[in-house]
């Protein structure tokens, strides 16, 4: 009963905000429960039975500290090749977290995957590939000509001495 009331009270206090707004208004949100929707980026950084996640909502990024078992829901992490899972994080915001050296972070209460991540197809552009081939070929020809020039210069200096 008490835990149900606590969850309802926390839910009533939480506000959905952007990470940039959280950073801009850090004094007002310090040690408050907030809700953020963001993409999980990079990887899970395990620390005993806890973990760190980095999330980015398009306005900015922030670290999230959470129990390791909460990360089991996550399947795809954002990077150059993947769009990471989009999650809703209910967390307590710390402007100067004493537990983590005074860094600004979130301590997760709950996370929910609201959209699964996916692989990003990035086809190679024909003009970029052609440009790379031409550039590589011209570099190799220039290198060959320079080495030939240097070799001929050495021969001439050896003959004149």
Describe, in short, the structure shown.
This protein is α+β, with helices and mostly antiparallel strands. The chain is 35% helix and 37% strand.
Account of the 3D structure:
- The chain has 161 residues and is an alpha+beta fold.
- The chain folds into two domains: 2-119, OB fold (Dihydrolipoamide Acetyltransferase, E2P) (Beta Barrel); 123-161.
- 35% of the residues lie in helices and 37% in strands.
- It has four helices and eight strands, in the order αβααβββββββα.
- A five-stranded mixed barrel has the order 2-3-4-7-6. A two-stranded antiparallel ribbon has the order 5-8.
- The longest helix is centred in the C-terminal third of the chain and has 35 residues, at 126-160.
- The radius of gyration is 27 Å and the shape is elongated.
- The model is unreliable at 1-8 (pLDDT under 50).
Which architecture of the largest domain per CATH? Answer: Beta Barrel
Tell me what portion of residues adopts beta-strand conformation.
35-45%
What is the string of SSEs from the N terminus onward?
A: HEHHEEEEEEEH
How many structural domains does the protein architecture include?
2
User: What's the rounded overall pLDDT mean?
Assistant: 89
Which secondary structure elements does this structure contain, and how are they paired or packed?
Elements: H1 2-13, E1 15-16, H2 19-24, H3 26-29, E2 33-47, E3 50-56, E4 61-67, E5 82-83, E6 86-97, E7 103-115, E8 118-119, H4 126-160
Parallel strand pairs: 1-2, 4-7
Antiparallel strand pairs: 2-3, 2-6, 3-4, 5-8, 6-7
